[in-house]
Amino acid sequence: xxxxxxxxxxxxxxxxxxxxxxxxxxxxxxxxxxxxxxxxxxxxxxxxxxxxxxxxxxxxxxxxxxxxxxxxxxxxxxxxxxxxxxxxxxxxxxxxxxxxxxxxxxxxxxxxxxxxxxxxxxxxxxxxxxxxxxxxxxxxxxxxxxxxxxxxxxxxxxxxxxxxxxxxxxxxxxxxxxxxxxxxxxxxxxxxxxxxxxxxxxxxxxxxxxxxxxxxxxxxxxxxxxxxxxxxxxxxxxxxxxxxxxxxxxxxxxxxxxxxxxxxxxxxxxxxxxxxxxxxxxxxxxxxxxxxxxxxxxxxxxxxxxxxxxxxxxxxxxxxxxxxxxxxxxxxxxxxxxxxxxxxxxxxxxxxxxxxxxxxxxxxxxxxxx
Length: 370
Prior knowledge:
Blueprint: E1 2-9, E2 15-23, E3 26-27, E4 36-38, E5 43-46, E6 48-53, E7 55-56, E8 59-60, H1 68-79, E9 81-86, H2 93-104, E10 113-114, E11 117-119, H3 142-151, E12 156-161, H4 168-175, E13 180-183, H5 190-199, E14 203-204, H6 220-226, E15 232-236, H7 244-254, E16 259-262, E17 274-278, E18 281-286, E19 289-291, H8 304-313, H9 318-332, E20 350-353, E21 359-364, E22 367-368
Parallel strand pairs: 1-4, 1-5, 6-9, 9-10, 11-12, 12-13, 13-14, 14-15, 15-16
Antiparallel strand pairs: 1-2, 2-3, 5-20, 7-8, 17-18, 18-19, 20-21, 21-22
């Protein structure tokens, strides 16, 4: 497929009007015997990668049902998200083992690509647990992580922990080369968070949410992350979790190079208002807000492409929003060699958007999804 006259997102993070060649599953350079598509007036961007979502369309990663991942993958691809890393909730080791084992069974590559799994709990502090179930919270456990990672086939891309918990420093030191260690669901102050980053933690789980506020006398985890240039920070841009002014502030504080847009979407995403569940807890959805009975936010009901659109509506330049939703997440999980840019040799995961940022066409490994 030759996509003619598109505004193509380039590796130097700008848009250039040119042709884009999809040669089988990869971006290519040959033009012989390929069908053509006129994409005049359309943007061509790398497919988005969501490294933190729980579910959509009535399905949750933790359901571990036979059709769970296929349903999530289909919805994500239709939305312009061509790769995803679903996150678990806080459960017992036995339940988590079944969830991760189920992920190893997905072999069909229809829809978005399953790029690994995200262990969001149970190594979290109770006071900042958010919508996680307190019954299963526990200190960081190195052998438990390795057992779960083995069951997943070595697919745990990220693990969240609260660095103030007993054993956190040892956990970070032991596992920093085996997975991405992300700080979150924590009461940690600046000094504790800084030490954790010095030891090898390199990521922040949903910046501003489930952590101490960014204060001028106690900058907390946010300030510690800012002070460590190699640290990346997730941002839920659904218009509920983080105010538009704080989205703009985060991009200025961390730069577009370090922000990773995520959806944190739960099973109600793509469905109507009503009553759902997350991690076994009742969730009520009204509009774009999902809450537990006590009013605690329970994930989002916004997919990553809508988060990108929100970011642009909040004042983030489109090129920066694409970088945060497509380029950075692929880099964070170690997939930059094949994802996150439209360069020859990379996988042909491409999204065509019109000027209003509506999805016109989605390709996953060169195959049309929409």
